[in-house]
Amino acid sequence: MGKGKGGCIGLGGGEGMLFSGELGVLSKELEGCDASILTDSTKKNSSEKIASPNQTVRGYEVIDKAKKSLENTCPSTVSCANIITLATRDAIALVGKPNYTVPTGRRDGLGSNPANANLPGPGICVSKALQFFNAKGMDLNEMVTLLSAHTVGFAHYFFFSNRLSNFRGFGVPDPSMDPTLVAKFNKTSALNVSATIDWELALDSSTANIVFGFASNGIRFQNNFAKAMVKLGNIEVLVGKAGEIRKNCRVSILPIKRNQLGPFEKLN
Fold first, then answer.
1. Where does the record place the Plant heme peroxidase family profile domain (predicted)?
2. Does 48 belong to an annotated binding site?
3. Is 112 within any annotated ligand binding site?
């Protein structure tokens, strides 16, 4: 199993940030990194690409370009799932973050389902977020690390609007926010406001020490981030004879639904 360097794997220069600020997590979270988010909807099957949590994902054309180049050089060799994983790593390195080594060998999923995009939103509380990450075999430290990763990219207004006007459904701004900052919102085109989960990570007794530890030691955060990303990319992936290697990342060669597959294998 390769390590993402040499042969057909090399993608050359980076193409910039591929998706939204949740790049790696969005594409890998619920059922492993199998590139199911890349497939387009058909008359018989809707893709998870159209699911609400994925509406802000962008940059599919970058993956298409990389896949076309690889197919011209070494047909049916590099999966779309590997392209996502390697491109994520390269995009992170391009913005000055750690350039880590990731294992390859992933294969592409045989279909896509919008229900699989049931990802935790930015308004989730710490305890619920931890349950979600624990279910995937990730611990508290890894959760805080990955939830901090969306500092790369941007966030749409609706991800934090509840903190400005309807916090927890009470029709008022988040009382922990500076009232002056809230009042200035309508006078500016950009605002440095964090999502609810960000703020709660800094306030919750179980996560506050981790957050402030990362804030005071950037190297520590980057090292933890690299390890967490590698672990995330190894969760419930398809390897061996499972899945397929698509020739076009938008089209599954064998349109079989995910729930028809057997248990997922894991990378070594």
1. 30-253
2. yes
3. no
Say if residue 178 carries a ligand binding annotation.
Answer: no
User: CATH number for the domain including 26?
Assistant: 1.10.520.10
Is 108 in the same domain as 181? no
Q: 123-137: per-residue pLDDT in tens?
A: 788 998 899 889 889
Is there a binding annotation on residue 151? yes
Q: What is the C-alpha separation between 243 and 108, in angstroms, rounded?
A: 5
Q: What is the pTM of this model?
A: 0.70
Of 251, 184, 203, nearest in space to 47 by CA: 251
Q: State yes or no: 198 annotated in a binding site.
A: no
Q: Are residues 136 and 238 in the same domain?
A: no
What's the CA angle centered on 111, arms 6 and 114, to 5 degrees?
A: 115
pLDDT score, position 19: 38
The answer to whether 34 is a known ligand-binding residue is: yes
As for how many domains the chain has, the answer is: 2
If asked whether residues 177 and 242 sit together in one domain, one would say no
266, part of any domain: no
Q: Which of 13-27, 177-191, 214-228 has the highest mean pLDDT?
A: 214-228
- Distances 241 to 4, 62, 63, 205, 265 between C-alpha atoms, Å: 20, 27, 23, 45, 10
Structural domain including 241 reads: 7-119+233-260
Say whether both 73 and 170 belong to one domain: no
Tens-digit pLDDT profile for residues 61-83 = 999 999 999 999 999 999 999 99
